[in-house]
């Protein structure tokens, strides 16, 4: 029987939380009167997470485990999940229970009432996150939205409900550089925003550190906008114009006033400024070329080592 609801949970070294996660998610789902499936995507964990979810899948037909061949990152793990969804509706949850599964019934209710394609969960509070993280998130979204051509909502994560139409649209985006939040926004569709309070992690530590978040931020900007390229062109035009006018000024000054050409410091200042601006421009261009290079290789977004489900085992 095809399930009505599919829950995707990506995992990377989450053995400390997976038991309580499964408990809480199942408790909520069992109270609902619908067929569901839980898809655990193990993103190449080095701990016993993969073994744990494989066991769950062995014993319960409603649970499936997708084991990726190595750590591909959360975005890729989600893609793997999307490709295996059977249900009409899909909900994405973090294994660390920062997105409370207890909200699922309300999400379903709102979905019925509002007749939309996606329910976006927007956090009202970022508990257990440092002031620097909040600040950097704030600035990141401001810059991102200034640069990109469509609005990418702030303070939302991957926690959301999507119907089949939204999911199918999302699956049509084939890029390797995946900034899921932006991809979600790009597909559009009728969206309802629901507010919720994001909990602190139940146990363990965040797997996405500052370096990976910075990478993701850059990914976000360069995947959704080519404005940085345009900015470097404009900067180039402005400085070339300035250089031209400055040249005329110096020529006239020495012709009319007979001033000897002087000014080692100003020459140095201009050379270093222009040198820096050029390197910045080349760097920005390089980022985009790099992206094109990676996309052109057409490698798969993820590779699966093993699929575990009770049905498949019975069929063998
Ligand atoms: N995750 C993953 N692959 C990774 C990093 C994280 O599948 O390479 C999963 C992780 O197990 C968790 C979710 O993505 O279920 C969110 O990760 P985390 O809590 O570390 O990030 P944050 O809460 O800071 O967004
Ligand atoms: Mg987390």
List the helices and strands and how they pair.
Elements: E1 5-11, H1 15-31, E2 36-42, H2 49-59, E3 63-68, H3 74-83, E4 89-92, H4 104-114, E5 118-126, H5 131-147, E6 156-163, H6 164-171, H7 180-187, E7 191-198, H8 210-224, H9 227-256, H10 264-296, E8 304-309, H11 310-315
Parallel strand pairs: 1-2, 1-4, 2-3, 5-7
Antiparallel strand pairs: 3-8, 4-6, 5-6
The chain binds uridine-5'-diphosphate (UDP) and magnesium ion (MG).
Magnesium ion binds at residues 94, 96, 98, 201, 206.
Tell me about this structure.
- The chain is α/β, with parallel strands linked by helices.
- The protein folds into 2 domains: 5-212 and 301-315, Spore Coat Polysaccharide Biosynthesis Protein SpsA, Chain A, CATH 3.90.550.10; 227-297.
- 53% of the residues lie in helices and 17% in strands.
- It has 11 helices and 8 strands.
- Strands 7-5-6-4-1-2-3-8 form an 8-stranded mixed beta sheet, sandwiched between helices.
- The protein is elongated.
- The structure holds uridine-5'-diphosphate and magnesium ion.
- The site of magnesium ion has 5 residues, from loops.
């Amino acid at each position: 029987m095809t399930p009505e609801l599919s829950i995707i949970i990506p995992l990377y070294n989450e053995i400390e939380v997976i038991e309580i996660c499964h408990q809480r998610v199942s408790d909520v789902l069992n109270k609902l009167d619908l067929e569901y499936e839980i898809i655990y995507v193990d993103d190449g964990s080095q701990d016993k997470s993969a073994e744990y979810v494989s066991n769950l899948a062995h014993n319960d037909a409603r649970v499936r485990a997708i084991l990726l061949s190595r750590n591909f990152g959360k975005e890729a793990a989600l893609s793997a999940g999307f490709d295996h969804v059977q249900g009409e509706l899909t909900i994405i949850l973090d294994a660390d229970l920062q997105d409370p599964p207890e909200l699922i019934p309300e999400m379903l209710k709102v979905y019925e009432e509002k007749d939309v394609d996606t329910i976006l969960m927007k956090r009202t509070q970022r508990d257990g996150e440092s002031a620097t993280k909040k600040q950097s998130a704030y600035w990141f979204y401001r810059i991102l939205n200034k640069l990109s051509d469509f609005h990418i909502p702030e303070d939302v994560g991957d926690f959301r409900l999507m119907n089949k139409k939204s999911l199918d649209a999302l699956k049509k985006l084939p890029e390797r550089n995946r900034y899921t939040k932006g991809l979600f926004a790009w597909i559009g569709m009728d969206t309802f925003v629901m507010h919720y309070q994001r909990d602190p992690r139940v146990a363990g530590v965040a797997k996405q550190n500052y370096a990976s978040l910075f990478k993701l931020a850059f990914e976000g900007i360069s995947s959704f906008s080519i404005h940085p390229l345009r900015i470097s062109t404009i900067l180039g035009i402005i400085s070339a114009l300035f250089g031209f006018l400055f040249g005329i000024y110096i020529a006239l000054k020495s012709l009319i006033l007979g001033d000897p050409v002087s000014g080692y410091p100003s020459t140095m200042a201009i050379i270093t400024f222009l040198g820096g601006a050029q390197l910045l421009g080349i760097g920005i261009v390089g980022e985009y070329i790099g992206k094109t290079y990676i996309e052109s290789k057409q490698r798969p977004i993820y590779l699966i080592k093993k699929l575990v489900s009770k049905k498949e085992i019975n069929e063998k």
